């Protein structure tokens, strides 16, 4: 296995990318928090704004027409920022408590990352999770065999999180990367792909392991190839629409994509 000529770093998302197949930790907590104020939301609704920072996610969820209607019916007024603040205050301790239950590695992800690191790539990471949640998740991941070179949480930076480029660029600074075009951002959500594109990076979308399909690893594995394709198609279309240069099912398929990107860089192509 040769080292890459041009690629320098991967910038990996967390839930739905390397841990938590199906991105269940954030969605489950959102359901609890909205239910606690008497405004039920469905799993499908909770998944719509995924990839945003969690405060923004709660606000966007409350603005979905059906949810906004239920909120109006329950409280006689639209959701306000103060309501988002109150829900977020409930969300945080629940998310901290729950994240460990859903921190299992996505099958093959840790081994893939280790093999890519052995080929000379630096491993950056960023998340829609705030720092208090990442502080729970990082030691659990490290104990299981995954410790990226750098991690940026969504509230670490004054500029904010996705879909802005800042978390991805903070990794570039921290890791001393020579050229943003030598980085590959990997994510399972549209805001995460936008983040990578705005940072000037190559982007790879993950269609099966993430939020868009929203199944556990066991549920996904139990499907027939035809059933998997039914789930994969809309997920892949969403990621391509966001501008992903490549879309694959899971992180395990990344090495072949990186070989292709490195060859394109060698030929003078840019993202």
Strand content: 5-15%
Count of distinct strands: 6
Q: What letter string, H or E per element, gives the SSE order?
A: EHHHHHHEHEHEHEHHEH
Sequence of strands across the biggest β-sheet: 3-2-1-4-5-6
What's the gyration radius in Å?
18 Å
Low-confidence stretches: none
Mean pLDDT: 96
Number of helices: 12
N-C termini distance: 24 Å
**Which term fits the overall shape?**
globular
Q: Which structural class is indicated by helix and strand composition?
A: alpha/beta
- Summarize the amount of helix as a percent range: 40-55%
Largest sheet: 6 strands, parallel
Which secondary structure elements does this structure contain, and how are they paired or packed?
Elements: E1 9-12, H1 24-36, H2 43-47, H3 54-63, H4 65-75, H5 81-98, H6 109-118, E2 122-126, H7 131-144, E3 150-152, H8 166-175, E4 183-187, H9 190-198, E5 202-206, H10 217-222, H11 225-241, E6 246-248, H12 254-266
Parallel strand pairs: 1-2, 1-4, 2-3, 4-5, 5-6
Helix pairs in contact: 1-5, 3-5, 5-7
Main attributes of the structure:
6 strands, single chain, 12 helices, globular, 271 residues, six-stranded parallel beta sheet, alpha/beta
Structure description:
50% of the residues lie in helices and 9% in strands. It has helices at 24-36, 43-47, 54-63, 65-75, 81-98, 109-118, 131-144, 166-175, 190-198, 217-222, 225-241, 254-266, and strands at residues 9-12, 122-126, 150-152, 183-187, 202-206, 246-248. α7 (131-144) links the parallel β2 (122-126) and β3 (150-152). The radius of gyration is 18 Å and the shape is globular. It has a 6-stranded parallel β-sheet, sandwiched between helices. It has 271 residues and is an alpha/beta fold.
